[in-house]
Amino acid sequence: MNNIKITRRDFVGKAIASGALIMAYPWLKVMAEDQAMDYSRKVKVGIIGVGSRGLLLLHYLTELSESINIEVVAVCDNYEPHYQRAIERTSGKAKAFYDYQKVIEMDEIDAIVIATPLFQHAHITVDALKAGKHVFCEKAMARNLEDVKRMADTHYSTGKVLQIGHQRMFDPRYLKALELVNAGEIGRITQMRAYWHRNNDWRRPLPEGKPELERKINWRLYKEYSCGLMTELASHQIQVANWLKNTQPISVMGTGSINYWNDGREVYDNVALIYSYEDGTKFIYDSMTSNRHYGLEEQIMGDKGTLEMEVNKKYLENPPPPPDPPPPAGIVQLMNDIQSGLFNDAIPLTNSSWIPELKVEGNGLSIAEREDGFDESKVQLEAFIASVRKGVPTTGVFEQGYWASVWTLLGQQAMDEDRIIILPNEMKLS
Amino acid sequence: MQVYQNTASSMGTRFNLLLPGIDKFECDQRFSSCLQELNRLENMLSCFIPTSEISFLNDQAFNAPIKVSDELFTILNSCLTYYELTEKTFDISLGKIIDNQERILIEEIGADKVLFNDKDKTVQFASAQIKLNLGGFGKGYALLKIRDLLIKLGVSSAFISFGESSICCIGKHPYGDYWLVGIQDFYHKDKSIDTLKLVDQSVSTSGNMKVNDHIINPANGKVVTAKKLITVKCNSPLDAEVLSTAFMIADNLQKVKILEAFSGLEILEVTYNNQIAEISKYKSQ
After folding, report:
1. Residue A113 · residue A45 · CB < 8 Å
2. Mean pLDDT value of segment B96-103
3. Domains along chain A?
4. What's the pLDDT score for residue A127?
5. DSSP-derived 3-state class of residue A44
6. Residue B12 falls within a domain, yes or no?
7. Is B167 within the bounds of a domain?
8. Closest CA to A118 of A255, A336, A267, A271
9. How confident is the model at residue A26 (pLDDT cuts 50, 70, 90)?
10. Which of A335, A337, A349 is opposite residue B165, by nearest beta carbon?
């Protein structure tokens, strides 16, 4: 159980081997069933929004087309260069549209993948679900709480799959971390910290001579379309915190400002928040764009140990004693001699060649082995397609995205209004 | 003949006990008595254990005289005696230099700045820069205690090793007239430089051949750079441990004085120049 080694095709088999994994992660169960599924029917997918993230998802879906029998039959983007690029990448085989409604209207399509700018997620998702399509939507869910709730309500009322792109749910490091938490290995979680630090302006260059495209290209920097660091980065780590804590916060406080990139942007370039859970646990979060030294991490602290999933490390407060060392070679020889009634070789005197394993513990232990080529962003699409084949949502998957988005937006609200925010009644799930 | 061996990790290295001709149950009990004793000593003497008696002393003894256990008082007194008998080459007060702390003046350290009050059994540091590190003493002292313990438990033949660099023998090899220990060439492991015959004797080796082996010269606070291995054979495992370090540091005159101060020493010095071993042997009366 110490080292789960997971490759993409191995993922399901290994997960099955560990009963605990299946119990903890229902979305793995659907992939397990995926193995016994009938692959003869081709699942047809349309992608709406083929910018940088959408292009990557298109790439994964194309890679998966044979192994899980899917086809991207439609691509859609209302920005001409992206539209043209999507046609190229699908070799003209997929139908191309500027208007997402046209994709949703295609009868043959089973599933829609949405990777548009944040503020367009909600109405496209709702329209697609209502049209009977299953939806994979990139995180965060929406720019405001009303839209998030509307997406949830439509998901529940239509019974169609809605999966939000939180790929850490499919990352072996995080899955193993959750297993360790559930097994009590790090004790009671009493504090969590996470951060995501970058040192760049987050701007994308505009095509020459087209300043009017600023808000379309750099939508992440404007409050009308985005909550900046919160929706783009923090939402991932808020999902992880809630997931490992196995509950939602009860309140959030925070502060943010533009203290470095005074370039006309409206979203904060640095944020600091504290989420509180009912048992008193705090989740302390910060993100910034003027220093990248500390990078990104989630630190899960319990009274018996600490997990750092990004670097795949586990530290125990009271590490078990190291195993007994092997006897030195010279001693083994001496023992053999005496047992055989011999007096032969001299026992070599050396400066110890054996070093105790204490230092390994100081540097932490691996949470899970990760194989080259494993890509959780791709695996999450496999899981999505498995749910689509099954035709019903997998328990717990959507809710991870829902609570991550809700508390992301409540965090933004806490900073904007400079007060402690609790969960509004209307956001509760019945 | 039956033979028992067991290995455990202790004092930052591996401890090995080999007992010929005694049944396993009895030996297991003896081995576990040894580990208990080693554990006790480590919790008293290790400056890597924050709750050890020596760590408490290091934290507090500059501020006020600190009452220590009788055993630690005796140990620290004997360290001072070794400091004097080794011409100040064996010095337990260099902890802060070993920890790589900068800006420590060599005048502010030295075992003579550890002050003893025999009546109250208290110890005080005359300088804030003193940190005691018993690294070059602990294994020898532990071997001494383990040897005495095993003899008390009726053992008449044993081979006791700490990290294969500090060895104490009880009696002799069951099929020989002595226990035989070999010294290999550091760069040519198949090449033997010398062998040592041990009967109720001990041997200890110190060196700076490996990257992490740092030996500090108390006279200047600097790391000994000349590449060498010192092996000391004598009756006491503690003398062997202390003197193997002292001889790494000692100049020619100091070596003479050390050989005068201790009886029954056999010392082998292997100095390396361009991986060629140059051997010197010393003996005391």
Report:
1. yes
2. 78
3. 188-316+405-427 (3.30.360.10)
4. 98
5. strand
6. no
7. no
8. A267
9. low
10. A349
Composition of chain B by helix, strand, coil, percent to 5:
35, 30, 35
Query: In sequence order, which residues have a C-beta less than 8 Å from that of residue B256 and are 6 or more positions away?
Result: none
Domain residues for the domain of B198 are: 178-285
Q: What Rg, from alpha-carbon coordinates, does chain A have?
A: 25
The first and second tokens of residue A41, run together, are: 């029917």
Q: Looking at the complex, report in whole angstroms how far the Cα of residue A322 sits from the nearest Cα belonging to chain B.
A: 8
CA distance linking residue A210 with residue A232, whole number of Å: 25
The tokens for A410 are 């409540």
A343 to B175: CB separation less than 8 angstroms, yes or no: yes
DSSP H or E segment with residue A136? strand A134-137
SS3 (DSSP) at B82? helix
CATH label of the domain that carries residue B196: 3.10.520.10
Single out the residue of A85, A7, A2, A19 nearest to residue A49, CA to CA. A85
- Kindly give the residue spans of alpha helices, DSSP state H, lying in A113-233: 121-130, 145-158, 172-182, 214-217, 229
- Closest residue to A351, CB basis, from B12, B203, B209: B209
Two structure tokens written together for B233: 């054979």
Domain final position from B125, B154, B187:
B125
pLDDT digits (tens, 9 = 90+) for A63-90: 999 988 999 999 999 999 999 999 999 9
How far is the CA of B120 from the CAs of B69, B71, B123, in angstroms? 11, 14, 9
At residue A358, does pLDDT exceed 60? no
A contacts of B229 (beta carbons < 8 Å): 351
Q: What CATH number is given to the structural domain containing B74?
A: 1.10.3980.10
Q: Minimal Cα distance from B166: which residue of A?
A: A349
> DSSP code of A139?
S
The reply to whether B169 falls in a domain is no
Sign of the Cα pseudo-torsion (A20, A26, A28, A34, in order): positive
Percent of chain B with pLDDT over 90: 80
Taking Cα atoms as reference points, which of A383, A357, A314 lies closest to residue A26? A383
Number of structural domains (chain B) is 2
| Confidence band of B119 (pLDDT split at 50, 70, 90) | very high
Are residue B121 and residue B184 in the same domain, yes or no? Answer: no
Q: State the Rg of chain B over Cα.
A: 19
Q: In 10 A of CB A396, how many CB atoms?
A: 13
Question: What is the spatial distance between Cα A83 and Cα A87, in angstroms, rounded to a whole number?
Answer: 7
- The reported pLDDT for the residue numbered A370 is 63
H, E, C per residue of B233-257: EECCHHHHHHHHHHHHHCCHHHHHH
pLDDT score of A330: 87
Partners of residue B20 in chain A, C-beta under 8 Å: 338
pLDDT tens per residue, range A123-162: 999 999 999 999 999 999 999 999 999 999 999 999 999 9
Chain B residues whose CB is inside 8 A of the A353 CB are 164
Q: Which of A361, A345, A413, A368 minimizes the C-alpha distance to A7?
A: A368
Q: Which residue has the tokens 């804030």?
A: B128
**pLDDT per position as a tens digit, B246-266:** 999 999 999 999 999 999 999
What confidence category does residue A429 fall into, taking pLDDT thresholds of 50, 70 and 90? very high
Residue A280 — φ and ψ, nearest 5°?
95, -10
For B27-62, the pLDDT digits (tens) are 999 999 999 999 999 999 999 899 999 999 999 999
Burial category of A391 from C-beta neighbours within 10 Å (exposed 0-12, middle 13-18, buried 19 and up): exposed
Q: Which residues contact B158 (CB under 8 A, 6 or more apart)?
A: B17, B18, B19, B20, B147, B150, B169, B170, B171
| B20 close to A (CB below 8 A) | yes
- pLDDT-derived band at A361 (thresholds 50, 70, 90) equals low
